[in-house]
Amino acid sequence: MQYPEPIAKLIDSYMKLPGIGNKTATRLAFYTLDMDETDVKDFSKALQATKDDLHFCSICGNITEADPCEICTDKTRDQSQILVVEQPKDVMVMERMHEYHGLYHVLQGVLSPIEGKGPEELNIKSLIKRLQDNPAVKEVIVATNATPEGEATAMYLSRLIKPAGIKVTRLAHGLSVGADIEYADEMTLFKAVEGRTEL
Ligand SMILES: [Zn+2]
Fold first, then answer.
1. Ligand 1 center from residue 28 Cα (angstroms)
2. How many CB atoms lie within 10 A of CB 66?
3. pLDDT at 12
4. Is residue 67 situated within a structural domain?
5. Are 193 and 125 members of one domain?
6. How many angstroms separate the alpha carbon of residue 73 from the centre of ligand 1?
7. Where does the Toprim domain lie (predicted)?
């Protein structure tokens, strides 16, 4: 027996989320069917709003409602440091730590020949332009994940940026190899920033 089309479509949609297989998707779809009408409306509005109301900041590449984002426009932040991360969610993680007060740059990924991701596919050009336009920047802290791709990206950036006389540092390896920034606890992350080393 086939599921009615709306349910079948909802199952398909849930299956597009990471880590969700057919069984979980089916469970979620039937759970949704039992939810309050208001909750379902709020859920669908929230989904739509992530696409309608969020944009990438034209300066740092982070997700934001206003462009430039509130971090880029905050003049009380330390304008001499830019911390480079892979994804917008890494910015949230660093901000939750409350110990870093500089600026950010979001690459939107890492160099990965296997996935066909070269420098052109990442927000690297905008970073270089930012450094050229802002002589106040004295240090670029590369906080890509401790994966082979993250390391390769850090080395690439270091080779690109250091000749301009800007210090390039890398988070200390309190972070375990292969670890994603987003899973690090705040103390580990704080230590990794404190103990950063020059590339
Ligand atoms: Zn920004």
1. 35
2. 10
3. 97
4. no
5. yes
6. 7
7. 80-176
